[in-house]
Amino acid sequence: xxxxxxxxxxxxxxKALLNLPVWGxxxxxxxxxxxxxxxxxxxxxxxxKKYDLVLTEINLSIYDGLxxxxxxxxxxxxxxxxxxxxxxxxxxxxxSFIYGAFDYLPKPVSKENMQALFERAxxxxxxxxxxxxxxxxxxxxxxxxxxxxxxAKLLSKFSRKDETVLEMFRKxxxxxxxxxxxxxxxxxxxxxxxAVIVEAIFSKHEWLSLYISQNFHKRLDYLVLHDTNNYVxxxxxxxxxxxxxxxxxxxxxxxxxxxxxxxYILQHPxxxxxxxxxxxxxxxxxxxxxxxxxxxxxIRYSKLITLVKLKRAEYLLTYTDLPIIDIAYKLGxxxxxxxxxxFKKVIGKxxxxxxxxxxxxxxxxx
Length: 366
Description:
Elements: E1 2-7, H1 11-18, E2 30-36, H2 39-48, E3 53-56, H3 65-73, E4 80-85, H4 90-98, E5 103-106, H5 111-133, H6 135-147, H7 150-156, H8 163-177, H9 186-204, H10 228-249, H11 256-267, H12 275-281, H13 286-296, H14 301-319, H15 324-330, H16 336-347, H17 351-358, H18 361-365
Parallel strand pairs: 1-2, 1-3, 3-4, 4-5
Helix pairs in contact: 2-3, 8-10, 9-10, 14-16
Pfam families: HTH_18, Response_reg
Protein name: Stage 0 sporulation protein A homolog
Domain Response regulatory: 3-122
């Protein structure tokens, strides 16, 4: 039997869940072993007891559902988290899945929906158990790949702007899948490998976190993939997107002064980045800096600043609920109409269209 913690502040809603005729059915059944009425009670239980599944309302006192998930997300053996609520905003749902939420059920929860959830959860938990049983062998295979230096070699070439980086990435992924030991677990191992690669890249280039979430690849948990090539292709696309973003924001600079200025710009996209301001910041004559960019840079200063700010705008549109006008002001655009025009010209669609496309819950989890 799988143990369940229910976190529900309303007594009638708790009773409704417990009265569904789906509890304790079969050898893979689920039983509610504890309940909590707020985030603090739930956190105490989660720290002292082991659960396989947590069903939680989003609107909780002290810690809300998402805060609870974030706190538990730090643990090595976290239970499956399912949010049960009347209404959930897209941004809230998106962030919850980024932190590893398993599912979302709308209230009132029907017998059919709960039964389907239990079936999916049981399958996930059984798969996790199989992986844990073979953890030693899997770890040996994974560590073997790491010690061969393939990842180190890939990372050392990440700053090169050519196709060899992408080719090498695919070879690293495929080499992991060739082991017969991983035949049933390549999805988990590829996810782990990709996380290692991404973490190393973000550690080396910390400014990337201002333009893309380090958890941007976590959507795989909600994809239905059936063979190794699909998994490799998925991560290849994700890596290609990350690599292309890096190349866009990181043009070649031969001059050491320009390299320092460029890094500062990447690290402070929301500040005043006018040429005169940067020249003052680095104690450089304005005219000299302008001339330096003209002679020793592959991109005009104004174009670089526009690109950096608009890529930051993309991040804010994707990962926050800020209105477009606030994003424009945050990035130094006092005229929101001009911001809309330049965004559409550079990115290819208006901020409002971009916002609508990203705010598709179905697209995100499928």
